[in-house]
Every structure is written in structure tokens, then in C-alpha cells.
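#struct-queue
[09:14] JT: dropping the first one here, sequence first, then the C-alpha cells:
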Amino acid sequence: MNLLEFLNFSSVLLFGIVLTLSFSGLSFRKDPGQYSVLFLVFGLIQALAYSILGSEFLFKAYPVLIHLPLFLVVKFYYKKQALLAGISIFSAYLFCTPRKWIGTFISLFWGYDANISYIVQIAITLPLLFIIVKWVAPYVVRLKYENSKTLKLIIAVPMLYYFIEYTLTVYTNLLYTGGAAIVEFMDAAVVIIYFVFTVIFLKTLYEKAEMKLEYMALRVMENSFSKEIEMLRESQMQAVIHRHDLRHHLSLLYGFAEGGNIDKIKGYLLQAQRTWTKLHQSCFVKTTRSILCFPSLTVRQKGGGHTAHCCKAAQGVGNFRHRALQRTVQRTGKCYHCCKQNRGQVSTHR
């Protein structure tokens, strides 16, 4: 048994398990026990396969012995989506490629010595893990918030690379001995993958842009409905205020009737009829001016028998005008001088 080769298999297993769990959102700092248990279980399986069946069998059976069981653990034990579990497995395998390439490149200076390649791969395992877990894994973890279309788009590239890699380098030697046909196939595969990825990605962007426009339209409708509801509430409040003021007017008329002042009642009603006729023929500003500025009724009661009723009625009219003045000034700002001219006509005796 080649010790360096066995250690390299162990470092590959550690590399793949850590990346798979990190990409699945399982932090090593929060639960290192999960990492340890998985590494021991799969390490035992790998050691038995290596010692009994040999390195060549282990190399070719890796998808069945390691990748598929690890996918099932992430999917069913950790309750992750199938697409997310697949992205974690395929992406972890994808990141094994630069690790292997660096070892092969360094061994170039020693005539492609396999032991040199194993030593380099083992040595760079932890630094690569630190870099990928720290700066790449957080972005992969956020894929859980994406929809299935986006996840299918993300999983396409590492999955295609996985199957092409195993077909051309593990189960066959076509990548190294196939000649020009295989080399051109790799070029064509890269181009096809690029354009498929681009088309799907652009389609996703267009769909998101359309959804954004629909969302903005819904927001505009929501704001419009909110304004209408606010106007209804304001109208309801104004109706309550008008009802309150109307009660004061009725109190005024009741005071006149109780005192037997029929002429004052007639004059008040006649003046109100004339004013309301003008209201019907004018705009909002003129309407409000007519309400606020029509000549006030002079309340005088001799003998003192009904002074309290008359004063209460006059106070009600004053309150009504004060509120109407505030509302009108807020909307138009033009009624002040009109009311000021008629203020001298008000004569209220208590």
C-alpha cells in the first residue's frame, strides 16, 4: 500500500466533506461533531475499499461509495433541498480540480512524479479549504433563498463538468489519448455550456425585471388605495364634525322656538336657504366662503328668560365657524379677509 496515495485519498475525503457541509449551510464552528462523525464513517468505508479492492477500484467507485451516500445524508438527514444537496456535492468536486492541478503542475519539475503530486495536494488541502469556506461558501449558502429555476441554472455547470470529467478521465483515457476529436469536443462543450448558461441566465434576468415592474405597479395601486382610504376616513371625520355643528344649529333654532321668536327663525331659515342656493352654484372655495361669511344672526333676548339658550346657540355657531375657518384656511388660505370684514356684524350677548 502506498502511504502517500492513501493519505491523499484521506485528504480528498476531508476536503470534499468539509466543502459539502459548508455549502449546505452547516457551520464547522457551531457543530464540529457532525464533521467528525461523517469523516470517520466515510473514512472507514474508504479505507476498507482501498485495502480490499485497491486504489483503482476506489477511484472509479467513488461516486457510488462516497458521493451518492453523502448526497443522501445532506438531503434526508439534514433536510436540504435536492437541488441544494446536488449543488453542494458537484461544487465540492469542482473545487477538487484546482487542488489536483496544482499537485500535477508542481510534479512537472520532477518528471511528473506521483509522490510529489500527492505531497503537494496534501499540503495545500487546508489552505484551500480555508479560502473556499471563508470567501465562497457564504455565497453558496444564500442559494437556499433562490427559486428552483435559479438553482437548476447554478447546478448545470458543475454537474456537466462532473460527468464529462468522469467519462473522459476516470472511466476512460480519452482526454489524454483521444487525439484531436476529444480536444475539439472539449472546446465545443465549453462553448455550448457557456451559451446555454448565458441564455438561461438572461432569461432569468428578464423574468426578474418583469416581476419588478409588476411589483412597482402593485405598489402604485396600493398607494392609491391607501390615499382613497385616508380620504374616506377624513370624510367620515368631517361628517362627525358637521353632525356636531348641526346639533348646535338645532339648539339655536330650539332656543328661538322656545322663546317664541318666530321671526328670527324665519329670518335664519331664509338666510340659510339663500346661502345654500349660492353654495350649489359655486366651487369649493366660494362655497366655503359663503358658509363662513354669511351675516351672523344677532341674538337678543329681552327679559332674561331665555338668555342661556340664546347664548348656548350663539356659542355653537361660533364653534362651527371657527372649525370651518380652520379647515378652509388649510385648503385655500383665502377666507381670512372675507370673514374679517363680516366679523363686526357678529353680536352675541350673554
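[09:21] JT: and here's the second one, same format:
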Amino acid sequence: MWLDELPDNAIDPADRTPLHRQLSTLLRARITDGSLSAGSQLPTEADLQARFCISRSVVRQALLTLSAEGLIQRGRGRGSVVAPRGEHHRLVQRISGLSMQLSEVSTTVLSLGKESDPAAEATLGVSEVLAIRRLRSVDGEPIAVIHTWLPYEVASSLTVDDLTDMSLHATLRKRFDVSIVAGRRQVRGVAASTSLAESLGVDVGAPVLLLEGVSVDASGVPVESFRTWHRADRVVFDIDVMPGSDARSAAFEPAAGAGGGTGASGGDTGGGTSAGTSSSSDVSAGDDDLAGRMRRLSAELAEVSELLAQRS
């Protein structure tokens, strides 16, 4: 049993941390890292008492903490088992966002207005951008914070009501005849900053999944730059794979002057850094190059869609 593999001082009476908190931390780590999967039986209270030389009240307090967090389920006659994980799955290769992929998603607009952001302006090839900050929740629990930048001249008339509990892409298509058809996405793990932790309901420094990218319309023109921070304990990124050449498409080569393609606001809301800006001539050349690659990418995606439709 994994319990026997732990060092003797895994629960240390000399540590100032309360014993019940040490035990709940130890068990929580085993659950969150997947060592104890959903449905797994936890050691009995008697086993935990004997292994760590602690009292039954300490064990029960630790288990009550984990139960309150939704990590375990307790029942008479069956002990404690790891609870099913409340995960929400997102296909990151799809253009559609969380509001279209998950049911019962609510959207709260945190801020909306014109903003000066040199990185986003360079990425979109415009002089003014509209910045949108939103919070996505499922069943009242926050799961993602989204920062989006749009060309101001395209979407300046957007309102909070337009975006509350609505899909941004659907709104752009309906109101402004702007259809997002392709883009580049990047995923990285970052630590939650103070303000991000407050918005998502996690601890400062907790791991979060950052999805960022640029989206283009049918002409290959960049129309959206975004960054989305997801709770790593609630959101899982799924990726579909299919047979194909190992050669990397030119459409996926980094764009000159794009700096990774996303804008970032200052302060501690991100857990990431802003992309550097380029000279005006470099940006112009980079935008032309990006548009060409995105058009090729759109064509490739259309071919893939047709192939999948033939197989279904």
C-alpha cells in the first residue's frame, strides 16, 4: 500500500502545522496528482491512526476537511472514497470557446472599454483596441478568466448586455458580420497572481492553465487576441489527434513581429508577461506574413473538416 511507502516523518508532531492539516495536505496531494483516482478507497481511520501515531479526532478532522472540499465521499459502512472529479473538458483545437463547449456556463463581464495596449495593437495591426475582461462560471463556481482584445473600430459598440451569458464569437458574427474561422493557440502553466486567485477562488500561486492566441477571419485578418486562465483543478484540455505528415506546416511558423501573438495588460492579473513590441515596418511585414499563413491554415482546416465529414 502507498501508505507504507511514506517516510516516518510524513506527519511530524514537531512541525508547527496542526496534525490534521498535515494529514489533509498529504491526502489531498495524492488525490490531486492522480495517485488516488476517483472511486479509490482511502485507508481506514484505524490504519491512518496506526501509521502516523495520531488520534482518531485528528484523522476525522482531516477527512472532514477533504469532504468539505468535495475531494472525498464518506459513508457509514464503506469508509471514505475519492469523489468523482468535477472536471470540465475543453477541446483546445476548436475555435469555439467555453460557452459553446460546456453546458450551464455563465459569463460575467468584469470590464469593457477602450484600452491602450501596444502588444495587442501590434498583434491586431490597429491603433486602438477594445479590451474585454470576463469571468466564466459553471454552477456558480468560477472556472476561467478571459482577457480579450478586439479592433476598436470593429467592435466599439459592444455592450455589457451583449456579452453577459453570451458567446463573443456568436455576437461578433451576428452584430458585425465578423466570422472567426481559424487561429493560433498556445498553452502554458502559470501561477495564479493575487487578483487572478481572487477571481478564480484559488490560492495565490496555485497552478492555472493559460490558453492564449490570435484568431482571424475568412480573409486571414487578425480580429481577436486573447488570454484565458483556467482553474487547473476544474478544466481539462482535450486534444484530438489524427494521422498526418510529421512535417510542420508553414502556417504554424511563428510570425515575425507577432511576439507570440497575444496582448497582456499590466499589473498582477496575468501570471505572464506582455509580448515585446516591434518597429512599425517590422509589424507591417509581420502582419502581411501572418495573414498569408492564416489563409493557408484556413484552407487546411477546411480540408480536414471535409475529410472528417467523409469518415463520419
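[09:30] RK: nice, looked through the second one.
[09:31] RK: The CA atoms of residues 264 and 274 lie 5 Å apart.
[09:31] JT: good to know. The two ends are 45 Å apart (CA to CA).
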